[in-house]
TrEMBL record:
Residues 106-206, 211-312 form the SRCR domain. This is SRCR domain-containing protein. GO terms for cellular component: membrane. Pfam families: SRCR (PF00530).
Amino acid sequence: MKRRSSRTSAVTPTFTTSLLWTLRVSGNRSSDLVPLPSELVDVLAEHICEDLTCGGVYHVTKSSSPSGTSGFHGCQYQNQHLQNCSETVGTNCSVLSEVVCAQQPVRLSGGWDRCSRRVEVWRDGTWGTVCDDLWDLRDAEVVCAQLSCGYTLSVTGQNGQFPPGSGPVYLDELNCTGSEDNLWACPSTPDQSDCGHKEDAGVVCSEMRAIRLTGGLDRCSGTVEVHRNGSWGTFCDNCWNVKMASMVCSMLECGVEPLNFTAFNPPLAADRGAASYYYHCTSYNLSLWECEEMINHAFLCDLSKPSGLICNGSLGLARATTASPTLVTNWTTAVTILSTAAGAASPKPSPELLSTIALALLLLVVLVINTVLCCLYRKRHGAGRGVYRCKQLAFQQ
């Protein structure tokens, strides 16, 4: 081994957030890698997370150091610093890329999209939930930002759209400003919750990806719409095919076979102010979200119409879904009306319509009688006088 004659500068943690860190050499070598003996890496990660009062280690990302790289040996750890290290070239070491302490992780669970689910936080090796007491948009904003899910659209709690969780309820009565790195940094009453899991907090973030059918007799038929970045847009029908239609039916839990996906007459109306989405799918894609997505593509969507779909067995038969109630609408289209009306008896006219028709016929009879009387009077008393008298009779009528 070849040892350098001098000691290195101190090695210190560099924080991405208060509970997410890696190692860097201080001074003008801050971009250098910090290879350490493999047996030291995990121990050091535990020490630093504990010194930060962030619990233990949730996850360590590390890799083998490149060949010929010098490693740091004989370090002394004190006050979140490695000091008096010696560099040795050619040793087998590991490089710490990132350490996540145990009070940093958050996840969304129990839903149909990674950015729209029940909120859970990690501590002491276990996932737990958050109580919905005082749970609001500012608290949820911390979660959406931490998960790169945009901003908060809505929050849920007791009797919400997401199923209850299990395990401990870690946080209660949160009072975040919305700018914190994670929920553990917010004022709260941890470990003093009187909540059950029926009160688990949830969130819907703007980067939620969802799909729905609007304008049909039930949620399994209508115009195909896609949710991205907080708003709904249409699915342009260029290259829209039976495989994509089957994907959508399956994603909506409306079976796997489309009853109709093309040739709607009249064509489905488009909202010209909404975004248009185009998806390029291959035979290997099982979900629409695995396909290549393009938004407002000038060539592919400008002259296209919105895609429509009637899943097999829809026709007014509602089916259970885990989707948000805000995503389910009542729909009517000309095509689905024709489908359900086929073979059904013609509707009977209402009493109001019959009364109107009878009154119109009565007025027509009165008008005919009045005209005949005028003509007879004119023949008997002369043309000029008859016309005058006829006008008088008409006026009196």
